[in-house]
């Protein structure tokens, strides 16, 4: 953890815990490095579903070419923050109302998931025009990954066999422009595997378009750039990915490639900070019960991993009895929920962990608070802190900014 963040974590009052602490300079530097690694012919969208915290989105805005959204709610949220930022609307099950909302909001690109969705679009277009990409479940082998969304039977995107029917609808409706194909097939790939997938997708798209005598100006290969929760230092190799894309694009002149990563952009900038409430032993195993839990940070439950963490020792102890602790042994970190699924990290070796110590869970900046079941058991929500170079803003449990420290 950066010194400025650690300083902030130490200064948090017990009543402010659990807390989400976001590292805005770290996020900007990371996004800048991603952008710098990518060739100019690659457009970078941030998938807002990973974390749509307004301050994070503002920090990212100058480093990305726009945002990918997957609901009417996300469109409203993004438009409320940025009047003009390019937005691409993807995701399954778009309603007619959402499609109309997207057109009203000037959403520049629609990623069409099915023939029915395309037909629905024609009913809400009116006098307007729309740029679309057809999302395809491209028939490529998707190596065993954390989350596969294509390559086999899937509710996502169009089966290749259905593409021609969509082409006919587009050909007879002058309001719809086909810009290209979209294929988000998997999440959790390293740079090498992601590059291999991109090459397969682009090769397939090229052959498909060539056979139909059409020219695609764009291919969007989605997100899914992997992060390694077991090794936070093993970051997706953006320079190698960028260099590989440069070589791939040389074989596809005239084509613009779009990518829309989420997790790999914001995972590292967020920390979920909490406190040990109890340390207990059951049949020889140590458990630390933490304030909060997976209703605030569902990521380890959703992905079935151990969330990496740092211990921030707190030496104050004012009780008359011995401070419960675990020493030089594996500890399972659990939350306050009445379910055995409320586990944040299992059997993790600690040198010393005591009641009152703070735990800062790393990699809590993506698919963390926003995918968690906040209301279960009605525990208080965390507080939110955005640490910036010059100041830290503090947002209370109700989302109101309650302070700044400079
Ligand atoms: C269509 C689409 N694009 C982009 C993303 C972002 O993926 P990731 O956060 O793994 O980069 C997702 C995630 O589900 C997605 O479904």
Radius of gyration: 23 Å
Task: Specify the biggest β-sheet.
Answer: 10 strands, mixed
Question: At the first level of CATH, what is the class of the largest domain?
Answer: Alpha Beta
The CATH topology name of the largest domain reads TIM Barrel
CATH-defined superfamily of the largest domain: Alanine racemase
Q: So how many helices?
A: 11
Structural class of the helices, strands and pairings?
A: alpha/beta
Topology, pairings included?
Elements: H1 3-11, E1 19-23, H2 24-37, E2 42-47, H3 54-61, E3 66-69, H4 72-81, E4 87-89, H5 96-104, E5 109-112, H6 115-124, E6 130-135, E7 147-148, H7 163-171, E8 176-182, E9 186-187, H8 191-212, E10 218-220, H9 238-250, E11 256-259, H10 263-266, E12 270-282, E13 285-290, H11 299-303, E14 309-312, E15 325-334, E16 343-354, E17 358-361, E18 383-387, E19 392-395, E20 401-405
Parallel strand pairs: 1-18, 2-3, 2-11, 3-4, 4-5, 5-6, 6-8, 8-10, 10-11, 13-15
Antiparallel strand pairs: 1-12, 7-9, 12-13, 12-17, 14-17, 15-16, 18-19, 19-20
Helix pairs in contact: 2-3, 2-9, 5-6, 8-9
Bound molecules: pyridoxal-5'-phosphate.
Pyridoxal-5'-phosphate (PLP) binds near residues 50 and 68.
How would you describe this structure to a colleague?
The chain has 406 residues and is α/β, with parallel strands linked by helices. It folds into two domains: 38-261, Alanine racemase (TIM Barrel, Alpha-Beta Barrel), CATH 3.20.20; 268-405, Beta Barrel (Lyase, Ornithine Decarboxylase, Chain A, domain 1), CATH 2.40.37.10. It contains eleven helices and 20 strands. It has helices at residues 3-11, 24-37, 54-61, 72-81, 96-104, 115-124, 163-171, 191-212, 238-250, 263-266, 299-303, and strands spanning 19-23, 42-47, 66-69, 87-89, 109-112, 130-135, 147-148, 176-182, 186-187, 218-220, 256-259, 270-282, 285-290, 309-312, 325-334, 343-354, 358-361, 383-387, 392-395, 401-405. The strands form three sheets. Strands 1, 12, 13, 14, 15, 16, 17, 18, 19 and 20 form a ten-stranded mixed sheet that branches. Helix 2 (24-37) runs parallel beside helix 9. The chain is elongated and about 80 Å long. The two termini are 20 Å apart. The mean pLDDT is 93. The structure holds pyridoxal-5'-phosphate.
